[in-house]
Amino acid sequence: MIANYHTHTFRCGHAEGDESEYARAAADNGFEILGFADHTPYDFFDFGPRDRPMRMKPEELEGYAESVRALAAEYSGRMEILLGVEAEYYPKYFDRLLELLRGAGVRYMILGQHFIGNEVGEAYCGRPTDDETVLDRYVSQSVEALQTGLFTYFAHPDLIRFTGPSDVYERHMRRICRAAAAAAVPLEINLLGLRTGRNYPDERFWALAREEGNIAILGCDAHAPKDVWHPDVEEEALRLAEKYSLPVLRTAELRDL
């Protein structure tokens, strides 16, 4: 790997390490590009204060942006450092989110659809479910997100943990593959999921991606500096891509906000 666009920091509440530690780890391992995509703040104004340990607070965004920009200047000429976020697509709040991110000078977003609806009152999509309605909503919301043209790539698109019939899974998830192909949005093979034995990458999904002509990209999803790169996990991800004849991008074409 020479580039990773999926890097978190302590601000999200479930990761460790500051930006400088991640940058040092990436540089030591020969990376040419390091993109920070910590979990975006979201203002849920209609529901009052929120204290869920999964994303930075709105008031932390400015410090996050300043820290990444300072690192970009420090590493200029050695490694490109990019300011991004990982964001869910919540229709009710999306325009407000874009205004917040643009005001902070955020360069790019990757899509990480952890919840459906507008999150509040909804279950985490990685929990097992055999409810086709949940699957359909996850897919429909992801397709709508892809059609905005604002996401650089789709992180762990196979996060949804559907335990119902495989033909139902395939019928719905194929829609994500088709929408991503139509929008030329790469799909991420998530190295954190591989390394920790999660339900993703889901080979059912990647078989569909082969049939629909999708392009893959590797994402470290690093939540600690030591996890910026694991060569054995990268090799496993590339074997998965080879198994399903998926081209793998080494660098991403950013979709500016």
Low-confidence stretches: none
**Helical segment tally?**
8
Structural class by SSE content? alpha/beta
The CATH superfamily appears as Metal-dependent hydrolases
Q: Can you tell me the CATH architecture?
A: Alpha-Beta Barrel
Helix-residue proportion: 25-40%
Tell me the radius of gyration.
17 Å
Number of strands: 8
CATH topology: TIM Barrel
Shape: globular
Overall average pLDDT:
95
The strand order across the widest sheet is 1-2-3-4-5
Strand content bin: 5-15%
Q: At the first level of CATH, what is the class?
A: Alpha Beta
Number of domains: 1
Q: How would you spell out the order of helices and strands?
A: EHEHEHEHEHEHHEHE
Distance between the termini: 25 Å
Main β-sheet description: 5 strands, parallel
Report what the structure shows:
With 257 residues, the chain is α/β, with parallel strands linked by helices. The chain has a single domain (3-249), classed as TIM Barrel (Alpha-Beta Barrel), CATH 3.20.20. Helices cover 38% and strands 15% of the residues. The protein has helices spanning 19-28, 61-74, 94-104, 132-146, 166-183, 191-196, 203-212, 231-243, and strands at 3-7, 33-39, 80-87, 108-111, 151-154, 187-190, 216-219, 248-249. Helix 5 (166-183) crosses helix 7. The protein is globular. The model has no long low-confidence stretch (mean pLDDT 95).
